[in-house]
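tool=predict chain=A
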Amino acid sequence: MPIEFAKYHGLGNDFILIDNRHSSEPVITPEQAVDLCDRHFGIGADGVIFALPGQNDTDYTMRIFNSDGSEPEMCGNGIRCLAKFIADLEGSEAKTQYRIHTLAGVITPELRSDGQVKVDMGVPRLLAAEIPTTLAAADAKAIDVPIEVADKSWSVTCVSMGNPHCITFVEDVAAIALETVGPKFEHNKAFPQRTNTEFIQVVRSDYVKMRVWERGAGVTLACGTGACAAVVAGVLVGKCDRATAVELPGGVLEIEWAEVSGRIYMTGPAQRVFTGCISD
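tool=predict ok
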């Protein structure tokens, strides 16, 4: 049967959103998601996001299939888009804040009056076993450690935002050959569940530029969890303030790592592009 969808993007990180509230399982398969995400033969997107019924005292459940058919734990830009999508579905009954169950835990986005969406991303995880990575002992942190990738030694810091991130600071992000280096980081044996990789250029302690290779999606214009992880890494190695703007190819995200609670807050836009119907 035909499936209605809406296309949204958060700083150019774009998604197909599907109203899946009638079922606890996604209405399309990962293989179908790959076809839909194809930018020449499908709708075109970095992933497909499903709004499913809530569980364990939450309003909704989020599931996402990447453009390669894999399923990540969470997506920062995606959950902002999901919050806007839910509010559009609910219309006059929409709330300004939702508790959303994800594979990375409960995430709480808040729709602000200025059109931005602020998301409580939770507390970053730093132990090697939590990421996971073999770059440090299981109960230790992988901060400013060396790794050999693409015949070069890189200094990296690893952070989990419910999904794995490997962050490295560089002189010029524009000079990084993402299509070549990104896959080699993603599939490096040091990351048993693969990894997202962020390349960061520090402009000021409160402003950085970032390019990203996303696990399962490749080069994208923005990555919300990656921006959060990058600021955490920057604070840990003494390069960033706890409140730092992250400039991505698709725009800017405001990230704050609260000192007392240890929680990460991400603020950025989410915008509907168009709606349509997927036929059989």
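The CA atoms of residues 84 and 90 lie 10 Å apart. Helices lie at 30-37, 76-90, 178-186, 224-236.
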